Amino acid sequence: MRGFLEQMLFTPKWYHYPFMLLLFPLSVVYGIIMSVRRMVTPQKNFGIPIVSVGNLIVGGSGKTPFVIALATRLEDVVIISRGYGRTSKGLVEVSFEGKILTDVTQSGDEPMLMAQSLPKASVIVSENRELAIALAKEKGAKCIILDDGFNRVEIEKFEIVLEPEQIKNYLPFPAGAFREFWFNKKYADIVAKEGKAFFRQVYFDNLTTKMVLVTAISNPSRLDSYLPEGVVQKVYLADHAYFDEEKLKILLSECEAQSILVTEKDVVKMQGFKLPISEMKLKLEIKETIFTQVDEYIKGYPQ
């Protein structure tokens, strides 16, 4: 059922359209509510430059590698994320200036990946973004990156919205993958279109001749065009799900495979696993004009 729904949201087939038609009125109502919310909610200025990296659709669009690429260029930067998939609640400091302060169950997979990838940045997770912003300022942040922050309409910020290369369903939730009407991207300062403003570069570590793909990301079929030869089976878990080492060992044995192929987001949840792991890594090539606009916003922010 999960696979059917994911396909309907992202790459619908003819047999999805009756369901989409039934859900269409709810999608319109939801889209209107979200648009009205955006128009009537006052924005709060926090006295610090805040750059939001977000998108309009549920699921992956490259936000995490985009945040990493952006944070690499900035000094005294704190990344604030919701921390989806974590077992903790409330505010958790994931890292401070590159020092890891907790484990992946408390942080969530994406914040941990960012923390491990950024030796000079700090990472905080919190449902309450205002509380996290206050802590970031207390810790000496000069700027903040708000991960997945486009829908945080109450916060005054510089908006970057990432737009996937191919969109086949433009409907808002629940008939489609959009969190708002697609044209609400007009509220962004930058709309970064994949294939024009940024490009994916995929490379691999420790490939073997026979692998099982195991991943816990949203819309996992988007990996298909990047997969190397030698993948004999694909196992998809729910987005942000955790892995059972013993089950993976059994899977390797049943498939007579030499390694488990996972993404960077998955591998942070396999620390300490005694398993042969092949890793799919993603890096973004981002147009310099985007960095220039962000730099101008930060430099021009009133002190």
Blueprint of the fold:
Layout: H1 2-10, H2 17-40, E1 50-55, H3 63-72, E2 77-81, E3 92-96, E4 99-100, H4 104-107, H5 109-117, E5 122-125, H6 129-138, E6 143-147, E7 158-163, E8 190-193, E9 198-205, E10 211-215, E11 231-236, H7 245-255, E12 259-263, H8 264-267, E13 277-286, H9 288-299
Parallel strand pairs: 1-6, 1-7, 2-5, 2-6, 7-8, 10-11, 10-12, 12-13
Antiparallel strand pairs: 3-4, 3-5, 9-13
If you had to describe this structure to a student in words, what would you say it looks like?
With 303 residues, the protein is of the alpha/beta class. The chain folds into 2 domains: 39-200 and 285-299, Rossmann fold (3-Layer(aba) Sandwich), CATH 3.40.50; 201-283, Rossmann fold, CATH 3.40.50. The protein is 31% helix and 23% strand. It has 9 helices and 13 strands. The protein has helices at residues 2-10, 17-40, 63-72, 104-107, 109-117, 129-138, 245-255, 264-267, 288-299, and strands at 50-55, 77-81, 92-96, 99-100, 122-125, 143-147, 158-163, 190-193, 198-205, 211-215, 231-236, 259-263, 277-286. The strands form 2 sheets. The chain has an 8-stranded mixed β-sheet with strand order 4-3-5-2-6-1-7-8, with helices on both faces. Helix 3 (63-72) packs parallel to helix 5 (109-117). It is globular and about 60 Å long. The chain starts with a helix and ends with a helix. The model has no long low-confidence stretch (mean pLDDT 94).
